[in-house]
Amino acid sequence: MKLKAVTTLVLVGAGGMAIIAATGVWALSGGLYGCTSKDEKLAPTLASLSILDVHPSQTQPRDERYSGCDEDDGFAYAGQYYRLTTPRADVVTFYRQAATEDGWRLESGNPSPSPAPGSLAVDISALCFEKPVAGTTAHLAVWFPSDLGDSPDDYGLEVTASHDGTAWC
């Protein structure tokens, strides 16, 4: 009887260790951190949104469109930079109209969202819109790198979304 009890204890212990190891592998591979496979598949959908092609006639696209999944915060994203060749206020006015016409709802607007000196930049979107996309809420940000002290001749459009609700402008 003692041998049977010891064998049972060893088998239960080995099974428990296997479960702990499997849970660790799952957690390290994105189960608790990073992007889900659903959000990784969402990035190309975001990159194909027509709003990323819309821009004032005086501006020009810069570089290639980018997309991916933010492993730190676990959301899909896609964006496009444009050369700023028209006044900033005209760009903001243009996207207020263009995004609304494309079904985006204005969530917030701050024409000059520069962070205070020495503070953490939380939201540098001049405009933030939202719209349902692929079964979740997508957020469209119109932002200016110059608000962070970078690229005074550019502005960007970025769409973020996540199936677990962790995306924002």
TrEMBL record:
PROSITE patterns: PROKAR_LIPOPROTEIN (PS51257). This is DUF4352 domain-containing protein. It comes from Streptomyces phaeoluteigriseus.
